[in-house]
Amino acid sequence: MPELDLETKIKELLGTAHKVAIVPSVVDGADSFASAVGLYRMLSGAGKDAAILYPGTVPAGLEGITEGINISTSMGNRSLVVSIDYSGTTASKVNYTTENDVLSFYLTPVDHGFDLSKVKAEITGPDFDLYITIGVQSPEDTGALKDQLQAEISKSKVLNIDNNSLNTRFGTIYTVDASMETLSLLILNKAPKWGLTIDQRSAKALTMGISR
What we know:
Blueprint: H1 6-16, E1 19-24, H2 30-45, E2 49-53, E3 71-72, E4 79-84, E5 93-99, E6 102-108, E7 119-124, E8 130-134, H3 146-153, E9 158-162, E10 173-176, H4 183-190, H5 200-211
Parallel strand pairs: 1-2, 1-8, 2-3, 8-9, 9-10
Antiparallel strand pairs: 4-7, 5-6
C-alpha cells in the first residue's frame, strides 16, 4: 500500500481528532494569532471541540475577530479526583494522613461490608487529543506554555504548522512551507486540502493575518 502524502495525513489527523488545542506563537504576533483564529473557526465548523491556548494579549487590531472564541492562557493542570458514594451509610467524618508520600483517606463510620465499587478515581484536566502549533519554531515560542507543551509533545499528537525554515520539525506531523509569505496565507491555501471549509469568519481572520 503506497504511503499517504502529507496533505492526506494531515486531513486524516484532523478528521479523527475530537478535542483540539491550537497554540499560536507569542513571538510571531498578529499573523500567527489570526491564523489560529481562522483555523479555530474552520475546525469548530467541522464539529470539533476547539480552543486557542495563548498566554499573551490579543494583538492590537485583532480584537474584533475573537468573538465567541474559547481562548485560554494556560493548559491547566491535571488532577487526580477520588470520589466515594457514601449514600445509605452513617458515614459523617473524613480525615486524611500523608506518610511516606502516601495519601490516605479515612471515612467513618462504615460497615464491614461497605461496597468498594463505590470508590472511584479519575484524572481531570486537559484532555486534548490533538495540539496544533502555528508559527512555533520550538516550544520556547509559546511563552508561559513552554514547559507544559514540551511535556505534551512527547505523549500527544501534535501538528506543527510553520512557514519558517528554522522550525525544529517537532511533533507527530509537521508542515513547513517557507515559500508562503505569511502563516495566514499558508492556512488559506492548505485548508481545502485538509478537508476544511473556509467560511466568512475564517476568511476574515486569515485576510487580516495576510495584511499585517
